[in-house]
Amino acid sequence: MAKQWRGVIAEYIDRLDIDRSAPVITLGEGGTPLVHAPVLAKLFGVNEVWLKVEGMNPTGSFKDRGMTMAVSKAIAHGARAVICASTGNTSASAAAYAAKAGIKSVVLIPEGKITLGKLAQAIAHKAHILQVQGNFDDCLVLARDLSENYAVHLVNSVNPDRLEGQKTASFEVFDNLGFAPDYHVMPVGNAGNYSAYFKGYLELQRDGFIKDLPKQLGFQAEGAAPFIAGHPIANPETIATAIRIGNPASWDLAMKAKEVSGGEFDTVTDAEILWMHRYLSNEVGVFVEPSSATGAAGLLKFAKLGKLPASAKIVITVTGHGLKDVGWALKDEHGEEVKPTSCSKNAAEVAELLGLERNT
Ligand code: F0G
């Protein structure tokens, strides 16, 4: 019988802050593909590029790595309900893991600002969904307040169990490649994931597996770029709704990760994000939601500025699946709706329509 990946807690139990006897709530998260992408290496003028395709997690985003830890520990603490603020992916994940655990989930989302796919996931997993008249940052303040004063367990990334689970992505990159990349690149919203990768790489270095830490490059959407402004932003705006965040919760951790790893933060425009979103699905075969293309879009900007050495080996995390936000994929590069061509059932007519040559 073929072996099945057991989820990040079972696979990395020796390296996670959790009791061996603790309950494990898992949906088989982690073990995601590291897709070799020579097309991107050529585009960026570097040696090697791989995509860590986190959309292949059970609920379609990297959040599941942290949620298995957070919900397992919530159960160990006797919690009967979990709560999170979310731009969509955390809520989908929290709702699914709470369903698996048989407890209640409450999700607070910014009104009108999450994609239908993500909303459908929270509904499907029977979350109690509240649309807050405010943005993600307002939702997080409310979630923290409720969890501090009522019987509900917070599973946002301010809960250290989340980052502890998410650090396993660094372990997988090392296990797959046998070395750490020169650069690790990703989108940054609340900065939890950026901080979690750093934690993972730092532990790999501490344990003697790697000598140098990857330089971590984190990219934000231009209209939601507090790290580049150097202060929180009151009204973040971007089409990349997953990272529409003005006051990142993991500010200090991320700043430290940037400094110690020798990394950088920078911005990309919504147009650059959408261009890369299309390029990844058209040319690499990897369909991600627009926010998830932010890291690769930033790398193209850096390549054009001549900031990337030709010898560089780079891993880019693409954070969420394209099916979560299909609206942008259904439009062409001019913003026009793409409609499949209608045709008859006649083979000769269809062949002509397709410009196919007849076999000789
Ligand atoms: N990419 C996707 C697809 C996300 O959903 C998020 C965050 C990020 C990147 C940024 O990660 O916050 O750790 O820096 N989504 C959160 C949510 C905020 O509620 O789903 P981060």
Question: Could you please describe the fold and organization of this structure?
Answer:
By secondary structure, the protein is α/β, with parallel strands linked by helices. The protein contains 14 helices and ten strands. The protein has helices at 8-11, 38-44, 63-76, 89-101, 116-124, 136-149, 160-166, 168-177, 192-206, 226-229, 251-261, 270-284, 294-304, 347-354; strands at residues 34-36, 48-53, 81-85, 104-110, 128-132, 153-154, 183-187, 215-221, 264-268, 313-318. The strands form two sheets. Strands 1-2-10-7-8-9 form a six-stranded mixed β-sheet, with helices on both faces. A four-stranded parallel β-sheet has the order 5-4-3-6, with helices on both faces. Strand 4, helix 5 and strand 5 form a beta-alpha-beta unit. The mean pLDDT is 97. The protein binds ligand F0G. Ligand F0G binds next to helix 4 and helix 9. Residues 61, 63, 86-90, 157, 187-194, 242-243, 289, 291-292, 319-320 line the site of ligand F0G.
